[in-house]
Write a structure and sequence with these properties.
The protein has 194 residues and is mainly beta. The chain has two domains: 72 residues; 88 residues, no CATH class. A hairpin with a 2-residue loop joins strand 4 and strand 5.
Length: 194
């Protein structure tokens, strides 16, 4: 397939060729008027979906067993998945959260910090439950860099930019918008939801 055959496809043609070489089934859809191209590659229970606007990459999603595992940062990472071994279904569970223990009651501004009291168990609660508990509330956490407590409002209450992600080392982080901007807090540092 060449760019001359499908001019809107642009860089998508190269990705489609990679899909064919790696024995992935693929499908594509284009809208020449809007200059958008969508390529879906499938192998077993794995799916990679890539969306371009003209030759500009919009998104790359990797899904396994129907669950979106991660947004891949670029097409090169998608090619690595194409050429990698098929992943066996994994059990999706967050690693055990080792929480910072607060031994005594102390004051932090207008908030009294008590021994760790959260309205959810971070070891058991799923991402959606944790997000519903913190949305619109003020959270307090221990900042390991400044070695001090910090607080921020998870704002606004109907905010959609709240998610939980894992670092490359398996640590779970809550990322959200506060009046001060985007914040990211390790779940094991979360002390209180007010």
């Amino acid at each position: 397939m060449s760019d001359d055959d499908y001019p809107v496809l642009g860089k998508a043609c190269v990705f489609i060729d990679d899909c064919e070489e790696a024995d992935w089934d693929w499908s594509w859809d284009e809208n020449a008027q809007e200059q958008t191209t969508y390529v879906r590659a499938e192998r077993g229970s794995e799916t990679i979906e890539v969306h371009w606007h003209g030759n500009r990459l919009e998104s790359v999603l990797y899904t396994h067993d129907g669950e979106t595992y991660r947004n891949l940062p670029n097409v090169a990472k998608a090619r690595e998945r194409l050429n990698g071994e098929p992943e066996e279904p994994k059990e999706r569970g967050r690693p055990k959260v080792k929480a910072r223990e607060v031994d005594e009651v102390c004051a932090f501004g207008d908030i009294i910090i008590k021994p760790r009291i959260l309205p959810f168990d971070p070891d058991i609660a799923n991402d959606d439950e944790i997000i519903s508990y913190v949305r619109g509330k003020t959270i307090v956490w221990w900042n390991r860099t400044s070695l001090n407590y910090e607080k921020a409002q998870v704002w606004p209450p109907r905010q959609v930019n709240i998610w939980i992600d894992e670092s490359s080392k398996g640590k779970a982080f809550l990322t959200f918008v506060s009046p001060e901007g985007f914040r990211s807090v390790a779940l094991d540092c979360l002390v209180q939801v007010v």
